[in-house]
Amino acid sequence: MQSDFAQKYWDLANAIVAFSVLQMLTFLYSLANKNFRAQIAKAFWPVLAAIAGSAVLYIVGVIACYWAESELRSVSTAAEKATSSCVSSHTMWARVGIVAFYSLSGVALLCWAKRSGWGLKKPS
Q1: pTM
Q2: Contacts of the segment 61-68: beta carbons below 8 A, 24+ positions apart
């Protein structure tokens, strides 16, 4: 029974990462629209704050799922516990890295777009 609940936390952590990646990819894809870029340019700092804040919340969610999963799996045998703990730990750090990478990529692209004028100026 506890193993089933642990699996649900594993799946939830996967869903959090998938959602954060899809959200960032959708946002970055939307930047191809000139009107959207103009709106983002007007709200640059709040958008950056939202990206950073959501990244922190996603990472906290992934870590919380890892802790809950670890607690639920702690009743397993010693051999299973050692193996699953190592895999879970590495997976948690990979998930955190994925969320951080996509969030930082979004921030970097926004900073580059701001520096280059958002592509809103007509070439002379």
Answers
A1: 0.86
A2: 61/12, 61/13, 61/16, 62/13, 62/16, 62/17, 62/92, 62/95, 62/96, 62/99, 63/92, 63/96, 65/9, 65/10, 65/12, 65/13, 65/16, 66/9, 66/13, 66/91, 66/92, 68/6, 68/9
